[in-house]
Write a structure and sequence with these properties.
Blueprint (H helix, E strand, L loop, with lengths): L2 H20 L3 H13 L12 H19 L9 H14 L1 H6 L2 E5 L6 H9 L4 E6 L3 H13 L4 E4 L12 E7 L8 H4 L13 H11 L1 E12 L8 H11 E8 L12 E8 L11 E4 L6 H17 L1
Parallel strand pairs: 1-2, 1-4, 2-3, 4-5, 6-8
Antiparallel strand pairs: 5-7, 6-7
Length: 309
């Protein structure tokens, strides 16, 4: 049995027990289990377990809880996407990572799985801030971050309202997709819709760039049809004035249950007077992840593009 499976066994058994004894939701019982572990009220040991073993075990338990609760805002970014985003963060910040640490913001933190996957991949090289409005999700993120010993400063609030977050080197975000209900807040944004409700994912892009340093980067997981919607023209105009598109990476269709759920990775650079737009935008499609030869060719294409910059 893998170490993460052993850890999952311990925390799942305890969460099941708490859920039954106290007649509460599994996710709430899991949170209590994690917080009790941090407070040394519940103890277990798996010799040689890594931070990734811990993150994976907690992720599996959270996924189990989400399936039971079936709340639409309770979703998690899969590991595969987190590792891909981490790869691109590493490519764009290679020198900075070698020389020190990089500041990162996730304005739609959720349970923190995307951000923690990237942080574990570059252990000790990122210091992060996360923003999440859902109390249960942010407490799960906080407990997980403490258990995997990754430094994240957390804010519980609506990310599209005023943020007390200093500009960062990079934003990493799996954009929440849909309409944003607070039309009064949306009025503060250039990407506020001229008529009707604004797209939350558009506003998150603008807010992310507001909190990115000049010349910094934003790594977004975006809907596959981002540039085909009825508000796409407005988004194009906004991006032209504020950011340079560095890369659009199409993800494999078999990663998603339906065409409507398909996503791409969009990498933006905030414009700076000291820098120039890229000579060529990287347009690529990630092959089926089980095709090792095609995957190697994909990473080779990325490297060739990077060297030609």
């Amino acid at each position: 049995m893998d170490k993460f499976e052993q850890i999952f066994g311990f925390i799942n058994d305890q969460a099941e027990k708490i859920a039954t004894d106290e007649e509460i939701d599994y996710l709430e019982a899991l949170l209590q289990t994690l917080e009790d572990t941090l407070d040394a009220k519940f103890e277990w040991q798996v010799e040689g377990a890594t931070k990734e073993d811990m993150r994976k075990a907690i992720q599996i338990a959270i996924l189990k809880g989400m399936r039971k609760s079936a709340q639409p805002n309770h979703q998690m970014t899969p590991d595969t996407l987190g590792l891909l985003v981490g790869y691109f963060v590493e490519q764009f910040f290679e020198k900075e990572i070698e020389n020190g640490s990089v500041s990162v913001l996730d304005p739609a933190l959720g349970t923190g799985n995307l951000l923690l996957t990237v942080m574990n991949a570059m252990d000790g090289k990122l210091h992060a801030t996360g923003v999440e409005v859902d109390e249960l999700l942010i407490r799960l993120a906080a407990a997980t971050a403490d258990l995997v010993e990754q430094p994240i400063t957390l804010f519980r609030q609506d990310s599209l309202e005023k943020l007390l977050v200093d500009p960062v080197d990079a934003v990493i975000c799996d954009l929440p997709v849909g309409f944003y209900p607070n039309e009064e807040v949306a009025l503060d944004y250039e990407l506020c819709a001229a008529e009707g409700m604004s797209y939350a994912h558009h506003l998150f892009i603008e807010q992310s760039l507001n909190h990115t340093k000049e010349g910094g980067y934003a790594f977004f997981l975006v809907p596959g049809n981002l540039f085909e919607s009825e508000q796409a023209k407005q988004l194009h105009k906004y991006l032209k004035g504020h950011a340079w598109i560095q890369a659009v990476i199409q993800l494999p269709e078999n990663m998603f249950s339906t065409r409507a759920h398909e996503k791409s990775i969009l990498i933006l650079q905030k414009q700076s007077a000291q820098l120039k737009a890229p000579r060529e935008v990287l347009l690529a499609k990630v092959p089926n992840m089980s095709n090792k030869q095609a995957l190697a060719m994909f990473f080779e294409k990325v490297q060739m593009w990077k060297e030609s910059k």
